[in-house]
Amino acid sequence: MVRKIKDIRPIELKDYKLYVINQLKLPLEEQWLELSTYGDVAKAIKDMIIRGAPLIGIVGAYGFAIGIKQLIDEGKPLDEAEKVLETLKNTRPTAVNLFWALDRMWKKFEKWKNEKSPDELIKALFKEANRIDLEDYHANKSIGGYGQVLIPEKANVLTHCNTGALATSGWGTALGVIRSAYEDGKDITVYVDETRPYLQGARLTAWELVQEGIPHYLITDNSAGFLISKGLIDVIIVGADRITANGDVANKIGTFTLSVLAKEFNIPFYVAAPTTTFDLNTESGKDIPIEVRNEKEIKECGSCKIAPEETKALNYSFDITPAENISGIITEKGIINEINKESIMKFLKYRGI
User: Fold this and answer.
1) pLDDT digits (tens, 9 = 90+) for 29-43
2) Where is pLDDT greater, at 41 or 5?
3) Of the residues 241, 248, 279, 319, which is catalytic?
4) Which of 80, 114, 217, 339 has the fewest CB atoms in 10 Å of its CB?
């Protein structure tokens, strides 16, 4: 049995303006925001109006094109393009997709700025950003195709944070694998970690699963271990914000804990991510900069204060899962089953990356 699943797109480009779903409003309201300046784009990324490593990269690429158009429209010199680039790069430090996409846009800009007229330059940059957007969507579909074969015909799948259409150009990475398995007719039940403090699991992943009609349960982050110990979870699949040369993975805080539990109870623990998430210039997880966000995100839930004003909070956004805890990395080019530097380099080289 093949099921038809609703296709969700979190962004839309119209007349050189980017429209995005305000993910801070979900699941209570589906609000679209207009981003017409590169400052708007930078704020949307920094404030987590949009989030998810692949989507941050895509929106960053569009933001650079918007920024160059803004310079041209305002009669400013293209020498200020570096300011646009740095403003966008300084929004979120951990997810490598942002830097990859902006570096790609910068190279095209450097190549074209003296070859094309201003109008041609703008069109070419938006076309390149759109190409990055489409490439990600097709990569996600391939990740789903490769990854769904790892999911049993009947399975309880635990996932963390949000790795679906809202975190990408559409379809998703880890959640995309689940969607592909469900679309293929498999009997899937998803267990969704709430993912404190921003509650991306509760607000976003659960919302997506409702839209797609996929059976699921929302669970508190600290109940995952108990469910695993009771044999209620068959497989864990998560996304990634950066994968180092040796296979260590930076992902939403709490991922490392799940990997330890999976190893203890002999449950497969998979990471799903496009090859753009690999950072081969970073040797291991200890070299990844980890974003520390405002303590208010922990001390408040929505508009409700949940901790004493005097209490200090430490709010790491990501943690590092060591390569030895990972059963496999699912990419758009196939699955890496041995997670070490030699296997990763061989895999990427063989596939022309």
Assistant:
1) 999 999 999 999 999
2) 41
3) 241
4) 114
**Three-class secondary structure assignment of 218-246:** EECHHHHHHHHHCCCCCEEEECCCEEECC
Cα–Cα distance, 308 to 222 (Å, whole number): 22
The reported pLDDT for the residue numbered 2 is: 65
Render pLDDT for 234-258 as a digit per residue (tens, 0 to 9). 999 999 999 999 999 999 999 999 9
Q: Which residues make up the CATH 1.20.120.420 domain(s) of the chain? A: 11-140
Q: Quick one: fold of 11-140?
A: Four Helix Bundle (Hemerythrin (Met), subunit A) (1.20.120)
Q: What is the pTM of this model?
A: 0.93
- CATH code: domain 150-350 is 3.40.50.10470
Q: Is 241 a catalytic residue?
A: yes
Q: DSSP readout, 294-334?
A: -THHHHEETTEE-S-TT-----B-EEEE-GGG-SEEEETTE
